[in-house]
Structure formats: C-alpha cells, structure tokens
Amino acid sequence: MIRAPRRLALLGALLLLGCDPQQDQHRTAMHQLLQGDYRAGISTLASLAGNGHAPSQYRLGMLYRLGLGVPRNARLANYWFEKAARQNDVGGQYRLAESYRRGDGVPESPELAFEWFQRLAERGYAPAQYQIALAYAEGQGVARDDSAAIAWLQRAIAGGHPDAARRLAQAYRNGELGLPRDPQQAIEWERKTQPARF
Length: 198
Fold this sequence. Notes:
By secondary structure, this protein is mostly helical.
C-alpha cells in the first residue's frame, strides 16, 4: 500500500508528465505582451521561436506584421509565418497564404497562395475553404472551375463561414458560377448568414 504523501507525489509526477515547458513559457510571453511588457514578451517569443516552437513563431510573425513592440517588417513576419506553417500551424499557414495572395513582404504568387490555402482547406478550416472557392471562381492560382468553386463554398458554409453563404447567394441572385438566376435560392442562402434569434 502506498502512503498518502507518497501517493500525492506520484500523482503530481504523473500530472507533470506531458507538460510542455515551452507552452508554459509561451503563455508567460503572451501574458507579458498583454500587460504591455513588449521587451520581455518578445524576448521570450524570439527564444522559443528560434527553438522551433510553432505557436511562438506565428505570434512573432504577427508582431512583425502589425509592428507591435518591433518595427513593422513584412519580410520578417513571413519568415516566421513560413517557419510555423511548415510545422502545420494553422495561423502560420493562413497568414503565409494571405501574404502570397497580396504580395505582402513576398512576391505576389496566386499559385503559392492557393497551395497554402489548399493545405488548410483539406484539413477542414472554413476560412481557407472560402479562399479556395474564391480562387476557383476567379481563376486565381488555379484554373477557373465553377463546380469546384460551388463545392468549396458549400464546404465553407458547412464549416460556419457566413461570407461563403453570401457569395453563394450572390451567385444565385446574379446567375454566376454556372448557376441559374434563382431569387428564392439567393434568399435562402442569405438567411444562412443571419445570426440565430432566440
């Protein structure tokens, strides 16, 4: 039989197994940033990011993108976004894709934007699914394909993305994406963009 103090020590050790010291440091850095202590928060994030901690890489990229506590630098922002993205960090992948779409700190590349959005869309991330739908609808970075655009809009809608429902409503209203003009369908899809009322 294990005595109570020893049992508590064993329980404590088991609880600590799997604890991520990097995650604890990341939380500390985020707290420091929220308190306005940018110097300490950025220092901690930079150390973690340099050691390969994807959430810290993404957050450091955001600080450079927004110019919070550091000079605004789109090139450095994308450097950190790509580091995080290559580790499947959702934020890093999405921001990197946006940068390629806009040409913000990297050469504009609709093809690379599509590739990064596609990775996220396949994982079920509704904002990326919406971007994939727009790319197919506009032929940006991929061949124009109305049926693929509609399919991705529907996936984004299923994921709760209201802009996707608005875009599908617009397609029915104006007879776009190979769909017939159908004001009733447009109204139905517009209703899906409205918040539920209780």
